[in-house]
Amino acid sequence: MASGPRSAAPGAGPVGALRRMLSTLLDLGHTRLQLIGNEIQIEKHRALQMLAQALLAVFCGCMALLMAVGLALALWWEQRIAVLSILLVLFAAAAIWLQHRIRNRRAMQDHPFAASLAELQEDLRQLKETAQHAPPQEPR
């Protein structure tokens, strides 16, 4: 039996474990950054779509209201003060109702990065669990 220094397999021991852990952490970080990048793109696309649709809806709504007011005034010219008063109350009530709906919708919306945050929390939970169950290393 040779009594020379004990030869260890490459990647064994604390240095190898540290390298594997750093490699795993880098892989996790890379994956999470890709996920965040994808979510940012999706949220940007969704926000631009909603903005374009909202602007178009506002334009069409304003044109329709303008035409409706003109038609109501033409039909009931003799009662134009009453017609304008009724339309003012209706438009104000509609504006208040729409504002209330917008606030409720924004409050119910999910966080834009909910999937990334959930994955990061799961990674942290697993790392903590692994650290708690790791066998203690023997001193040399």
From TrEMBL:
Domain of life according to the entry: Bacteria
Keywords assigned by UniProt, alphabetized: Membrane, Transmembrane, Transmembrane helix
InterPro entries on file: Phage_holin_3_6 (IPR009937)
A Pfam family this chain is assigned to: Phage_holin_3_6
Membrane-spanning parts: 54-75, 81-98
Name this polypeptide is given: Phage holin family protein
